[in-house]
Known about the structure:
Blueprint: E1 3-7, H1 16-28, H2 42-45, H3 50-62, H4 74-84, E2 87-94, H5 100-109, E3 117-120, H6 123-128, E4 133-136, H7 139-146, E5 153-157, E6 171-174, H8 177-189
Parallel strand pairs: 1-2, 1-4, 2-3, 4-5, 5-6
Helix pairs in contact: 1-3
The structure holds magnesium ion.
Amino acid sequence: MKYKIALDLDGVLAELLEGFCSIYKERCKKDLSLDQIKDWDFFEQLGFSEKELLDFLDEVWSMWWIIPPTEPDLDQYLVKLTESESVIIDIVTCRNKKTVPYVKNWLKDYKIPYKSLIIAKDVAEKLSFGYDIYIDDSPHLMKLIESNKADAKAILYIRPWNSNFPDSQNVFRAENWERIYQILKEKILEKTGN
Ligand SMILES: [Mg+2]
């Protein structure tokens, strides 16, 4: 049996908000850096509605080449996982479908190994797809998984905007990709006999 992993894109693989900060600074002539974004709803403090933020982020994706990866060597961990473990990795992401070609370019450019690119309308839909393991930075998804009676497990990639979320029985916190890899190997895959 292969374990199905739902791997998030924005904030886990792609440092989308880095691109957001550069365009925001240029356009709004105000300072903003990644470590100033300490809340999931940070856009409200900047005076954006959720819709305005999502449109802005779509625009950032249209310039996909300005978006760096969250960590320079993260593809190596994914290659090691796909080569040595019984896992299938899908990129599962909430987004406007028009950004898909940009996303595919980005994934190719950074040599991210994955099987399918799956679009969800929100985090509840991500969970409804029934993956075994979710790797994500959304505290809302973690909350759903924590209270979910299903067997799904999750790794929360700790970012400035979700760092208050606690560990729980089925949610593990990881401060970097090395730790994500360790948790997968030692606490999830080996424990379940893979
Ligand atoms: Mg995300």
